[in-house]
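Quick one, probably user error.
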């Protein structure tokens, strides 16, 4: 029997963990596979060992691992495969296959459009956007965020879309805000490229709220969060992994 193991990032913020679990549960119901479990890479329980163990206890002989993460950074390329390989060594009769993260997808760009509209603010002709990624030392992540920024620029009325990062890459979020504040745009829409709430989102909210009134008006958009399009993309990734079966 084959199982699907969804691996979310994890968060110190309980609300962020709960949002991830609730989102995955909605996807599970629509896919209907007999064994589907959720676990976390770090900061939350159950961990990967518990996730794989639970699948095995239910009779799984194959496990399809699907990272519920946005981009293929170090977590997807190294951390998750290494931990899965380590844990699966305790279950030598089990075959494990790795799926892909959500990746760059037009439906995710559509969610960003909606999050900008939800601010209720009319976009002026000179408005700019600041796309904020979690950050990674992996160059593929940097390229992917740049691709997303270009797609936003193509689809929305921004004069410019810049990219900054919350950790492990430059420009930093503080540098991105400083540069935008000193610019000539009357509006800056800050777009968090994050799945759910958590420490990083709260830090952004705090810093934006402390900006003084000089310079452009800043509008912090909602993180991606649960959305039908997000569910569609995750379902695509699960089905791809279920059929492709690339062994770890």
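Nope, works fine. Designed sequence:
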């Amino acid at each position: 029997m084959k199982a699907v193991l969804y691996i979310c990032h994890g968060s110190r913020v309980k609300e962020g963990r709960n949002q991830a679990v609730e989102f995955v549960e909605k996807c599970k119901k629509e896919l209907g596979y007999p064994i589907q479990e959720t676990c976390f890479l770090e900061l939350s329980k159950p961990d990967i060992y518990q996730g794989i163990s639970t699948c095995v206890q239910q009779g799984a002989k194959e496990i399809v691992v699907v990272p519920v993460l946005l981009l293929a950074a170090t977590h997807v390329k190294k951390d998750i495969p290494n931990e899965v390989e380590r844990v699966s060594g305790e279950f030598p009769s089990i075959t494990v296959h790795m799926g892909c993260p959500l990746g760059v997808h037009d439906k995710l760009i559509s969610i960003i459009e909606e999050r900008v509209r939800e601010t209720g603010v009319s976009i002026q002709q000179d408005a700019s956007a600041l796309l904020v990624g979690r950050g990674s030392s992996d160059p593929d992540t940097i390229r992917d965020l740049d691709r997303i920024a270009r797609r936003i620029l193509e689809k929305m009325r921004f004069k410019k879309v810049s990219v900054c990062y919350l950790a492990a890459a430059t420009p930093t979020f503080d540098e991105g805000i400083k540069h935008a504040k000193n610019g000539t745009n009357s509006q800056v829409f800050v777009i968090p490229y994050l799945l759910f709430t958590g420490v990083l989102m709260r830090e952004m909210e705090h810093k934006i709220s402390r900006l003084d009134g000089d310079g452009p008006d800043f509008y912090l958009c909602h993180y991606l969060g649960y959305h039908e399009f997000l569910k569609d993309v995750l379902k695509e990734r699960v089905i791809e992994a279920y059929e492709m079966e690339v062994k770890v």
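The radius of gyration is 19 Å.
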